[in-house]
Amino acid sequence: MQNRALIIGASGIAGSSLASRLLSSGWQVHGLSRGRTPVLPQVKAHSADLTSADSVRAALEGLDVTHVFFTAWARQATERENIRVNGAMVSNVLDALSAGPSKLAHAALVTGLKHYLGPFEAYATGAVPETPFREEQGRQKVENFYYEQEDRMFAAAARDGFTWSVHRPHTIIGFAVGNAMNMGTTLAVYATLCKQTGMPFVFPGSSMQWNGLTDMTSADQLARHLEWAATAESARNQDFNIVNGDLFRWKWMWSRIADYFGVIAVPFDGEVRPLEARMHEAGAQWQKIAAQYGLAEADIGKLASWWHTDADLGRPMEVLTDMSKSRQAGFLDYRSTPDAFFSLFDRLKAERLIPSA
Hints:
Oligomer: single chain
CATH topology of the largest domain: Rossmann fold
Radius of gyration: 20 Å
Shape: globular
CATH architecture of the largest domain: 3-Layer(aba) Sandwich
Structural class: alpha/beta
Helix content: 40-55%
């Protein structure tokens, strides 16, 4: 019987890559979102306010799927609101599917390394576990909407008899427009601004991130991991870290990104220079660049997420993950992080989101 997937956030950075992966594997794919961004043509789109149980129930009425993948979240002003809103989103979907014809086999939840670091408003203020992060380290003693989402999914799985998996990527490299957590596109826009205006390509982050080891997650690597866990016996009812499998230092990666765009990587002098504080004129500058090169998106806010890139590159501690649990369970895929960046940049050019020259 054909697998039938429902992807929550099918137009996002993780969801769109997952949709492409599942379609290529012969799955039938449905997408549920607010409907603001188009999904792949082969995806059957459903629109709803994910925070409204009635809206979700109406959108999913009569839908029969075997798997559901949660790849979206809604950022709120406080972690308490994140918990309330994002926890409800999981329950709203699973309750609606439970009430309909679906007999779920599996639910998958994408969270991230803030499982170990804590939420944005209490970021790394507690006793951060020793790196590399391992799944066995468990939860931090802080409020975290990831934990609420997990608990809602666990409760529904116990009620309805489906299996589950939790996936914790590091920063995701992938293609998406209008995504709030998109370092790859943010760096591409930043490098383009530097090239076009003569602004120096300065690393915005901390000494620890510049000098220390780190890793990242390509969206296609995450998609492979999600499909694997949804179908592998060894992955049932497990939480997993998921990264590319290579390590790097930003002082090495920064010059390679600079070379791709034909800008000079300014040597890091130890001072943190956040992008958000330096990009006040970037919106107007990008409009001029978009007009000059005939770009498809003149609103820089739909491409760059300065705050999120600042948060990732400004971390004062090492952030590194262990992939042993996935490998022992049979997931052996690998993705080169530089290649993931360059593939994204090539696509951004092809889609006329950054200049091709």
